[in-house]
Amino acid sequence: MLIGSSNLLRAFKRQKLLILGAGCSRNYSQGTSNITGLESPLDSNFFKMAKKVLLNSRLESDLAILIEGLVHNLHRLYGYEAFEIKNWINTSDASRFLEVLEDDRLSLEKVMTQLIFENEIFQRMPPFDGYYQGENRTIDVDSSPKALIELIALTISKALEGPVCSEHIRLANSLSQGDVVISFNYDLLMDNALRETKKLTDCGYLVPFRSVLDGQGSRRMEDTPSDITLIKLHGSLNWLHCSFCDTNFLNRSEKISLQYATLPRSCPYCGESNVYFQRVIIPPLLAKNYSLSPLKYLWSRVNRYVAKAREIVIIGYSFPSTDFATEALLRDSFPWEFQRQTRFVIVNTQKEVFDRFKKTFNSSEVIWKSSLKEYLDTI
Prior knowledge:
Radius of gyration: 22 Å
CATH superfamily of the largest domain: TPP-binding domain
Distance between the termini: 33 Å
CATH topology of the largest domain: Rossmann fold
Oligomer: single chain
């Protein structure tokens, strides 16, 4: 054996680790939005879900203008006719204007990558005949990624509107002090379940929040130790960053808060305008950027928590071939024969995900469960 002894390793690896992907959020069945067919979105059906939300929501005017520009850009990029419309919300033309969101060619990752390419790589072409510029304003391509992030927030918020998820509470109750949850989801289903079961405090995120926003003002983050560590490697829709003073805040005023309704008018720390606020999330890009503060810090420390796991349960994560970061994390955390000494449970409706994992990693014990309920019923 190259390092230490197997007995020492088994004593060190004492924790259970959950890894949550988008499929885990699909277990939420207590929604109260009353929007027919709305469910927690995936990459492939995000825009279809977003259309349902937009046709059944009242938006702040600033957000409506942002999304209007995004939709015009989708018309342009996907070969639709220029659409002359303003103030489209709650009009008879809204469904026709948003028809592009039903296009099967659209996926969240693909569209965000296209928008970032236009902003950061391609030289913007001048307006041409047929490219709608707006009667009194031009379409700002630079604002489309921001508009898409806010549309993500709105869609997830509506899809998961309702009480704390009963299945996530069962999942939280299955965890013991010292266990760890890694989530790639922006939503707060696991956060709320851990809070409900008194297993998560502000310290459990490992993020040094300057203060916590609760809708009435700001206060210091809790310094009470957390039973469970929740590491959100792609960020969270209720984490905010002020780029002026480089400060992070935790927003607790709503289950998931929409920027234009709940942000303070100024940064509680430096006093600058809330125009410097941004959501702390890694945008859904093919080539993701992990350098955003504080996510870079989380990625730099997460392997220490993964390496301590005696059992890893991976729920609703599809292991796409392009997600090199997650594969690299697991390989780095379990070098040499240590990979074979960890028990993996793959919880996914698609058995091919289980088969793909078995071919990728050299583990002696990999178990497949076809649903979260099946997994919870067996522990």
